[in-house]
Amino acid sequence: MQTAVLSREERGRAIAEKPNQIQRMDDRFYKVASQNGHGMYDVIHRENGSWICNCLDFHYRALEKHEIVRCKHIWGVELSLKIREHVQARVIAPLPDVRVCLYCKSETVKKDGLRKNKYGDIQKFSCKSCGKFFTVNLGFERMKHNPQAITTAMQLYFSGESLRNTARSLRLIGAHVSHQTIYRWIAKYTELMTKYLDKITPQVSDTWRADEMFLKIKGNLRYMYALMDDQTRFWIAQEVADTKYTADVRPLLQLAKQVAGKKPKIFITDGAANFHEAYMQEFWTQNKDTRTEHIRHIRLQGDRNNNRMERFNGEVRDREKVMRGLERKDSPILAGYQIYHNYIKPHQSLDKRTPAEAAGIEVKGKDKWLTLIQNAAKTPVD
After folding, report:
1. How far apart are CA 375 and CA 370, in angstroms?
2. Which of 138, 143, 172 is closest to 375 using CA atoms?
3. pLDDT at 145 over 80
4. Quick one: pLDDT at residue 2?
5. CA 300 to chain centre
6. Distance between CA 37 and CA 323 in Å, rounded?
7. I want to staple 359 with a disulfide (CB 3.0 to 4.6 A). Which of 36, 61, 232, 250 is the partner?
8. Quick one: which of 263, 271, 216 has its CA closest to 237?
9. Which of 340, 331, 323 is nearest to 240 (CA)?
10. What is the pLDDT of residue 382?
């Protein structure tokens, strides 16, 4: 019986997945353990983008035979970097303090007092190398009010206060703004955070639920279709339509597949025909092994009820009562509340975790709004 010969990439992956096999010396220099117990090999990332290793395999193939190759140690380092980037992408952490001067790029930077104005204090920094002073306000550049006022406004509003009550509450921390200004803050930062969060894939389960609820938009009755993960309560996608039973909800299912990076194994809805029509076009396949099961005849009790979706509808309904209707179908209020539901609000049914945490995305920091906004601001838009 012949033994399968593993490729260098496969052996490199085995190295990357083992603990304590790769030591990072600096950004370009790594030490990789010999798999035969013969010490460590040096793997260096050169300025031209190529890698070199001092193992015999690389020396013979690359230096003597002039081949463009990767030995298993180079593969191991590259794959470990990809694994680390993937893990880091799942944790959204507060940005550290400033370490580099904005002018001369020196690392001899220190905090040097506060810049005071009537809207709040902003940290000043000074550079020992060039002697210049500067401030950093990532995500809140050219805003008259400090970040605390803006994130406090968003927390107050999405946790249940009206725009006018939020404006009154902000006066207690010295921020005198109108309810229109608060709405503009919500619109600005909801769009910024949405573009950033759309790039992060939640690890949702294989059972999804969908339902519709009515909303008033400019006094007219409209319907919001929402799709939620059963296990994590992650609100995957939403769509606002003019009708209840005849609206085309295929875009809702298409967006959900894009956000989750997959389709579900079980799809639970009520008996509305438009859900089943969309299911047949987006989820159904002839292959029984990959086919999604559509549960559409819901009972009041048992596993095949939609009570979790009804509770979610009640949560959104409570928020809508305070809003007294929306101004337009693509209102930033709904997108902002989706961010609040997924990333900010802890849920009792999830042991006081957020749906994002249940889906493998952790937002750290005392002010999660601030963490999300600053990470969104520093991430380039494609």
Report:
1. 8
2. 138
3. yes
4. 47
5. 35
6. 67
7. 232
8. 263
9. 331
10. 57
Integer CA distances (angstroms), 208 to 94, 162, 249, 279, 291, in order? 31, 31, 15, 12, 14
CA distances from 145 to 8, 17, 66, 357, 366 (A): 56, 47, 61, 30, 19
Q: Which of 61-75, 164-178, 314-328, 355-369 has the lowest mean pLDDT?
A: 314-328
In three-state secondary structure terms, 172 is helix
Q: What is the pTM of this model?
A: 0.71
Among 18-27, 36-45, 60-69, 121-130, the minimum mean pLDDT is found in 60-69
Nearest to 73 by CA among 62, 65, 85, 64: 62
Q: Are 292 and 263 in contact (CB under 8 A)?
A: yes
Backbone angles phi, psi at 373, to 5 degrees: -65, -45
HEC string of 230-271 equals CCCCCEEEEEEECCCCCCCCHHHHHHHHHHHCCCCCEEECCC
CA-to-CA distance for 236 and 344, rounded, in angstroms?
15
Q: What is the pLDDT of residues 252-303, one digit of tens each?
A: 999 999 999 899 999 999 889 999 999 999 999 888 778 899 998 655 444 4
Query: DSSP string covering 186-220, please?
Result: HHHHHHHHHHHHTTS-----SEEEEEEEEEEETTE
Euclidean distance between CA atoms 114 and 124, whole angstroms: 5
Take residue 184 and report the two structure tokens written for it: 């503009």
Which value, to the nearest 10 degrees, does the dihedral of the CA atoms of residues 266, 269, 270, 271 take? -60
Burial class (CB in 10 A: 0-12, 13-18, 19+), 382: exposed
Pairwise CA distance, residues 72 & 10, whole Å: 8
Neighbouring CB atoms inside 10 A of 56's CB total 10
At residue 1, the pLDDT reads 42
- Domains of the chain and any CATH numbers: 8-89 (no CATH), 207-329 (3.30.420.10)
Q: What is the mean pLDDT of residues 186-194?
A: 95
Spatial separation of the C-alpha atoms in residues 379 and 314, rounded to whole Å:
35
